[in-house]
């Protein structure tokens, strides 16, 4: 079925989407977190009447505005790519994927864009409380915007609340609430937004640390660090809890992804968590890039089992168990899933042919059989496997998943320590004396971005080859367009996004060098 598909087209389309998504994600987390921090700072201004808090709020608001404007441009292109590069996917998901994106555009983004105007231009034009309300609504709008996008993404990872319509060959929503409140959507939203809070807190502390090192605007810097340290510490601890919940959901809904980011090939009871490890090509099959051994690893016994199933002795399947099957623990082989997927496809094809031939009685019989609960559970749920020609396609990049996951987790624990130290130094009044920590704070800013990007690599690379888990692989989702057209737009977007990123960095650095200042009279 996939013989006519140009794999270079698939790879270039994936590369283009990954490029756009990762550039977009450079801007989004700072927007998510900085809006909340700005709202907290303005709340302190309204509560205390201290104009220093107004100066602080307006400075961070300028940096937020620069980041927000450039982030919008990349986000718009990202949504258009669903239609240009992934039209088969866009058709197959029916009204499910489009609904949350439409809500995001009509409601959340509209709300955010409306109140951001008041936030930026309403100083001295509306009352303090109205302006503060607009700032909080901007922050809420940013999170709501993220919510609907993450709900759509979560459905791709765990398709629920839907029913396949053989008449149209589309998935249609049957329960909006199941889609919105699926555990995958909840965990993805809480984990992603809290990661944005952490990144923004590090950004504020790092920039403020630079001012202290330069002995400029010391009161501004200390107050900014105080707010960001408290908010960041709470957010980083919350991030760890949401990450744990998210990992447990992945273990149960996407066991191959879970096995890949732990480098687990052979499952076991009481599986250990690899805290640190370095992988190398397997001596048994050097040609297989996904078959790896560990040169060195530090493993904590039983922890992986507890992480996955809250049972220290639970069986955690490895890659081999999921490919070859493990009857003892109820895991079906990939070959069996492929056969069931082909049966589901054949039934759908027979129905279509009967409809085309005008045999309504046979078509109705085939549709009834196709839509029966037994057939849906035992065959349609493996529909996407019918496209798979080699079980090796079902294994994501193990090294990329493994290292991305461990970098993300390792930096996450570092951030908790970082915020704790920042808060202690603020409380003890020793920030100016801790010049080593202040320099470290500046270098922690890029580490926050690395951790954020690594999280999305884990989420998206780890679920390959699926664009919709078990229902549609990436190779079946791509638009049949010229590979050269995708290549041209890839390099075009790469050039544009890189220029936008350079422009943002330059503009931000210029604003940071100018520093905070009071504009006009009091609000």
Summarize the topology:
Blueprint: H1 7-48, H2 51-84, H3 87-92, H4 94-121, H5 128-157, E1 162-165, E2 170-173, H6 176-180, H7 183-213, H8 218-253, H9 255-261, E3 268-269, E4 273-281, E5 292-300, H10 303-309, E6 315-316, H11 319-324, H12 334-357, H13 360-371, H14 373-378, H15 398-428, H16 435-461, E7 466-468, E8 472-473, H17 474-477, H18 483-514
Antiparallel strand pairs: 1-2, 3-6, 4-5, 7-8
Helix pairs in contact: 1-2, 1-5, 1-7, 1-16, 1-18, 2-8, 2-18, 4-5, 5-7, 7-8, 7-16, 8-9, 8-15, 12-13, 15-16
In short:
The chain is 70% helix and 7% strand. With 523 residues, the chain is mainly alpha-helical.
Molecular structure report:
The protein is mainly α. Helix content is 70%, strand content 7%. The strands form four sheets. A two-stranded antiparallel sheet has the order 1-2. The longest helix is centred in the first third of the chain and has 42 residues, at 7-48. One of its GO terms (cellular component) is cytochrome complex.
User: Which structural class is indicated by helix and strand composition?
Assistant: mainly alpha
**Low-confidence blocks of residues:** none
User: Gyration radius, to the nearest Å?
Assistant: 25 Å
Taking the alpha carbons of the first and last residues, their distance comes to 67 Å
How large is the share of residues in beta strands?
A: 5-15%
